[in-house]
Design brief:
The complex is a heterodimer of chains A (about 240) and B (about 280). Chain A is mostly helical. Chain A contains ten helices and no strands. The radius of gyration of chain A is 18 Å and the shape is globular. Chain B has a domain of about 130 residues: Rossmann fold, CATH 3.40.50.300. Chain B contains eight helices and ten strands. In chain B, strands 6-7-8-3-9-10 form a six-stranded mixed β-sheet, sandwiched between helices. A four-stranded antiparallel β-sheet of chain B has the order 2-1-4-5, covered by helices on one side. The longest helix of chain B has 17 residues. Chain B starts with 7 loop residues before the first strand and ends in a 34-residue tail after the last helix. The chains are: A mainly alpha (about 240), B alpha/beta (about 280).
Chain lengths: ~240, ~280
């Protein structure tokens, strides 16, 4: 890996996104709008306090998954990836470059969404708000790396969008948003223990409800990070300099 | 002529994609400092051959030496410029942003962007998004990326497709001047007319080499006066050869001095005498 090439790739990806102001606007505004809608729906109940953290975990994950899988699929299909692979760019330079760019976007997105949830919608955060940002970024990185991995198995944009329900929805269903994970049937419960999103939702719920859970939260974030690392490694195996 | 100083040397090169064999044992060389045209109908294996040379395509067997090293060697990644058939640049970046990114990747000097922009005649469009350019301009951006860092070998897959005659002539002029400065070029095209502008021609058909000659040598061999007729003659002869071993009875008009084994490139030895004129650099 060469830091100069990694950062050049990050700068290039960010420059590409800068030329697409509509995407940037959607990235930054849509999560806040949805959080506002949720707060309104649950205005007469206490549910918002448990659902809002889960939403803050989901947005960066889902959005970064979609953006990354489609942009890398474009790279594969337009020939730019093949061209880069005939140049002295390392596979990790490529993947880490992408992860840094989208991680940065996720930080901005999470700051806007968390700020809106706390100051406008009145979400109370008992723990350290920076931990909330940390978990959101970990989720974004997770989405980015899973997207990179998924793009290798899609031949078209249509297919890559179908990976959303296949890879992302089960994690949402089993993540403990609809029903606490402790109340799930044993088999589903143990599957859910293995899914990265369960850990990030758990971490976010701890941040908002518990005052002194930094250790647990960092452990959960660490598990999410391990998953992300795993996807980076597997994703780099799907980048090949030579096709058979 | 076929010696170690050649930019590309292939011996018994076979490439399989999936179950089908695409290249059936090619022997040829691309001499240094020349423009070699790789011609042939679509589906003949031109792009696969070029991808093998730049190291993007795995070979089934045979040897492929590029600038003295096995193809795909990491050191070649700075020395070989490659243009894929579709313009492989970023539509959502400006021309200059594209050139800057790729020049950082290959470690080219900063001044290279300005030089390349001039060479592909895109200075006025430098700050436009590539996605807003015309097809011809976009393929020139892609060509520009390959020229960054002054590579010793350029592998260009149909670089002039979709360009108007004026630009085509300008680019062939650029190729010729690059060759004079010592760069070796392998340029594919399916426009037979462009064959006249090459120093040598490789004619590929169904994964076999039908010819490896100078343009004049080719015309003389096929007793034709224009490139289209020469290729049609060779291809008709090859197809006749595939259908029946006694092809001479099918195509009596093409039979003189030809045998089916020409397809496998066994005639490589008799080129030297026929190379007397160079076509690059002529202003027409």
């Amino acid at each position: 890996m060469n830091p100069k090439l990694t950062l050049a790739t990050t700068a290039r990806v960010l420059a590409q996104i800068r030329h697409d102001p509509r995407t940037v606007a959607l990235l930054l505004v849509v999560p806040s709008l949805l959080i506002g809608l949720m707060a309104w729906i649950f205005v007469n109940t206490k549910e918002f306090e448990t659902i809002a953290p889960a939403l803050l975990a989901l947005f960066p994950f889902i959005i970064m998954f979609l953006i990354t899988s489609i942009t890398t699929l474009r790279e594969r299909r337009s020939g730019t990836l093949e061209r880069l692979m005939t140049m002295p760019l390392g596979k990790f330079d490529f993947i880490v470059g992408y992860t840094l760019a989208f991680g940065l976007l996720a930080i901005i997105q999470s700051l806007v969404a968390v700020g809106y949830a706390v100051w406008v919608c009145g979400l109370s955060i008992s723990g350290n708000p920076w931990l909330l940002i940390l978990v959101a970024v970990a989720n974004a990185v997770l989405g980015t790396t899973l997207g990179l991995f998924a793009s290798a198995f899609a031949a078209t944009e249509f297919q890559v969008v179908q990976f959303m329900p296949a890879l992302v929805f089960p994690q949402i269903l089993l993540g403990g948003i609809f029903i606490p994970r402790a109340q799930m049937p044993d088999v589903l419960r143990s599957i859910s223990d293995w899914l990265p999103l369960s850990h990030s939702i758990e971490a976010l719920q701890k941040v908002t409800t518990a005052t002194n859970a930094t250790g647990t939260i960092l452990t959960e974030v660490g598990i999410v990070a391990l998953w992300a690392l795993g996807f980076v490694v597997v994703g780099s195996l799907t980048l090949r300099r030579q096709t058979p | 002529m076929v010696n170690s100083s050649a930019a590309v040397v292939a011996a018994g090169l076979r490439v399989r994609r999936g179950k089908a064999e695409v290249l059936h044992g090619l022997d040829f060389s691309v001499p240094s400092g020349q423009v070699v045209g790789l011609l042939g109908p679509s589906g003949s294996g031109k792009s696969t051959l070029m991808r093998a040379i730049v190291g993007a395509q795995r070979m089934a067997s045979g040897e492929l030496t590029v600038l003295g090293m096995p193809s795909g060697s990491p050191t070649l990644r700075r020395q070989v410029g490659y243009v894929t058939q579709a313009p492989s640049v970023y539509d959502d970046l400006t021309v200059v942003q594209n050139l800057r990114y790729f020049s950082t990747i290959i470690g080219a000097p900063a001044s290279d962007c300005a030089r390349v922009l001039r060479e592909v005649d895109l200075e006025p469009q430098g700050h436009q998004l590539v996605g807003n350019l015309s097809g011809g301009q976009r393929s020139r951006v892609s060509l520009g990326v390959a020229l960054l860092g002054s590579p010793r070998l350029l592998v260009l897959d149909e670089p002039t497709v979709g360009l108007d005659p004026v630009l085509r002539r300008a680019l062939w002029g650029l190729f010729a001047s690059l060759a004079v400065s010592g760069v070796s070029l392998l340029v594919s095209s399916h426009v037979m007319d462009e064959a006249r502008r090459c120093d040598r021609i490789l004619l590929l058909h169904d994964g076999l080499l039908l010819a490896d000659e100078t343009p004049d040598g080719l015309l003389a061999r096929t007793k034709t006066t224009d490139a289209d007729d020469a290729f049609l003659a060779l291809i008709a002869e090859a197809e006749a050869g595939n259908r029946s071993p006694v092809h001479a009875t099918d195509h009596p008009e093409h039979h003189p001095e030809h045998h089916p084994e020409h397809r496998a490139g066994h005639h490589a030895a008799k080129h030297d005498g026929t190379r007397d004129t160079k076509h690059h650099g002529n202003a027409e």
